[in-house]
Amino acid sequence: MKILVACEWSGTVRDAFRARGHDAWSCDIIPCEGDNTYHFQQDVIEIIYDGCWDMLIAHPPCTYLANSGVHWLHRQPGRWDKMVTASVFFKTFLSSGIPKICVENPVMHGYAVSLIGEPYTQTIQPYDFGENASKRTCLWLKSLPKLNSTKFIEPVYHCKCGYNFVYSLGKYGCPDCGGENGPARAIWENQTPSGQNKLGPSPDRAKLRGRTYRGIAEAMAIQWG
Question: For the whole prediction, is pTM greater than 0.90?
Fold first, then answer.
């Protein structure tokens, strides 16, 4: 298949499909961090309607759509208009007419969901695809089956008493307090004990958090290719 991976600068999804013989290309307004040979550095709108694509996998920016940032909508001037623009851009992929479509984003706030007007098909977690990480991601799928889990990675439990223990003991199985402090929190390697992402504030934080996990990219290539 000829595959367009939109808004991808890492080349992770593109390379997973290319490794299986597909003619996959990434596209972003910034250079690819890896091999630029199969990368369009331009606005994806300029090529999405070429009529040559069999599959589209899109990762549109989530800054103004994600539920994690909804509290800024009415507090930061101009953010609402940017949210509307981001919603229109997101819908462009869903209505592109390409035969097979996957558009991914984190969990959205209600305003974005209302503007986009189409519910997601499924949610996935990297820990269901061999990655020691938690990052709930929504997929909007057209003419593609839901992704099946490939390998579950167990978390550790972090108890309110401060003790960490193995998943097999269960959330009330803290060897230190015996569960007297209530249920422990399941955490993966990318999380703090409170469940937040470990990445601290930086100019590249959004970019780094937006990177597709290799285990998910491999599952896409195997199950959809």
Answer: yes
